[in-house]
Amino acid sequence: MLQQLEQIQKQASEELEKINDPKELQLWKVRYLGRKSRLTRVLRSLATLPLEERRKIGVRGNEVKNILESSLAEREKILEEARIASSLKYKKLDVTLPGQPLSVGRLHPITQTLEEICDIFKGMGFQVVEGPDVEWDYYNFEALNIPQEHPARDMFATLWVDAEVGSGKARLLRTHTSPVQIRLMEEKRPPIRVVVPGRCYRYEATDATHESMFYQVEGLAIDKNITMADLKGTLVEFCRCLFGEERKIRFRCDYFPFVEPGAEVAIECLACHGAGCRVCGYTGWLEILGAGMVHPDVLRRGDIDPDVYSGFAFGMGVERMPMLRYGIDDIRLFYGNDLRFLKQF
Fold first, then answer.
1. What strand order describes the sheet that includes 171-173?
2. Bridge partners of residue 219, in order along the sequence
3. Nearest to 33 by CA among 45, 50, 16, 48
4. Can you tell me the distance from the alpha carbon of 51 to that of 225, in angstroms, rounded to the nearest whole number?
5. CA-based, 20 to 30 A from 269: which of 8, 81, 316, 344?
6. 132: which DSSP letter?
7. With contact defined as beta carbons under 8 Å apart, do 145 and 298 qualify?
8. Sign (positive/negative) of CA torsion 277, 278, 282, 286?
9. What is the pLDDT tens value at each position of the chain, 345 positions in all?
10. Is 74 exposed, middle or buried, given 0-12, 13-18 or 19+ CB atoms closer than 10 A?
């Protein structure tokens, strides 16, 4: 049997050296190391031999098996390296073939909406300006007719940066973009026509219609002889540009501390076209923004004489616009980073 083992090792090694195909290598493995191979049959027959001969042949049989397994692993490595080297060889380039398409990203739906809103107002002669996210209590509240202890402060769940609340000099994360009104009036003289896009912050629980961080666009126009008719004409044009020429618009009285008179602007429901449905609460209307004529006291704080100049202001939540246009029922979808949702815009 020792002679038989030597013969198996020699024959297997000679055949292995000539193999250059993985399929042939697999057949070699079955032939010499498989359950029905000659080597396996020799090792199984050891039980019929005397003890001394069994030990001697068993040791040699295991040595042959280990040698063949090592040789097989080495040959597999050589063939794999040859395959990789062959795949990396220079191949002739066919310049007539089309190029491989590249995955192109896109703007976030809120960014798209912000740019669309700003473009509409730029077409009407407004400039786009920005202000700080961290604001003084004076600009965020007091200069806008919301002094300490004013009930309107309850409308704003404020995130304070400083602990010294009540001094007028405390800092906070702005609750709306309206503070930029005062900053602009302090820096510029009329005529003023600006829109102010930016992030706002509220300390409140998130749900389908509320987020602790959201976007607003504030608008301000100040000049001589500006009236409510100018405000109405501007916002009617905006609504029709954003929601369609045939969309009906409604103005209704509302209260905001920094405007007088104030108005709520609503559009005809996009789902039921005014008939009444669950989306619009069966009213046929969807509120989109608040507006009004700038309060004389606010003009005075900006060092502008209300006897000479007048102005209007408006503000809207940006997330509400795509929610209405596309029938989105949860504001949290915009900030969930789910590409399945974002790729639709």
1. 134-136, 171-173, 159-160
2. 195, 314
3. 16
4. 119
5. 344
6. -
7. yes
8. negative
9. 677 778 878 888 888 888 888 888 888 888 878 877 877 777 777 777 777 777 777 787 788 788 888 888 888 888 888 877 776 665 666 778 888 888 778 889 999 999 999 999 999 999 999 999 999 888 888 888 888 877 777 777 888 887 666 555 788 899 999 999 889 998 889 899 999 999 999 888 888 777 889 999 999 999 999 999 999 999 999 999 988 888 889 999 998 888 999 999 998 887 777 787 776 778 888 888 999 999 999 999 888 999 999 999 999 989 888 888 887 888 888 888 888 888 888
10. exposed
**What would you report as the CA-atom Rg of the chain, rounded to the nearest whole angstrom?**
39
From residue 305, alpha-carbon distances to 159, 167, 180, 231, 298 in Å are 33, 27, 18, 20, 10
Residue-by-residue DSSP string for 305-337: -TTT-EEEEEEEETTHHHHHHHT---GGGGGS-
Q: Residue 239 corresponds to which tokens in the numbers above?
A: 């609504």
The three-class DSSP label of residue 112 is helix
Which one, of 194, 183, 142, lies nearest residue 302 by Cα? Answer: 183
Cα–Cα distance for residue pair 55/229, rounded to 1 Å: 110
Which residues of the chain form beta strands (DSSP E)?
A: 127-128, 134-136, 159-160, 171-173, 192-201, 213-223, 249-254, 259-268, 285-294, 310-317
Using the 8-state DSSP alphabet, how is residue 103 labeled? P
- Say what angle helices 22-33 and 2-18 make with each other, to 10 degrees: 170
Judge if the upstream peptide bond of residue 109 is cis by omega within 30 degrees of 0.
no
> Under DSSP, is residue 3 helix (H, G, I), strand (E, B) or coil?
helix
Spatial neighbors of 64 by CB under 8 A, at least 6 apart, are: 5, 8, 9, 39
pTM above 0.85, yes or no: no
Share of the chain residues as helix, strand and coil, in percent rounded to the nearest 5:
45, 20, 35
CATH code that applies to domain 109-342 = 3.30.930.10
